[in-house]
């Protein structure tokens, strides 16, 4: 087999990506489960949104979120500085 023949055959081949049917089916199942859970939460009259809002806006929760954001910003600055010096 000459290199010309091999090159011609390679040009004629059409590359097709692998089909991931199982991934699509499992993603669809997970999406349907999440939609069912969301629908159950939103349509349930015993789901007390005022209690959830009260708990999520409590002082300790807000302080925790702010501390997390501060630590994230500090980490980003430190990593960027370390990357600058390690370059």
UniProtKB/TrEMBL annotation:
Keyword Transmembrane: yes
Keyword vocabulary terms for this entry: Membrane, Transmembrane, Transmembrane helix
Ranges that cross the membrane: 21-41, 61-83
Name this protein carries in UniProt: Amino acid ABC transporter permease
Organism of this sequence: Klebsiella michiganensis
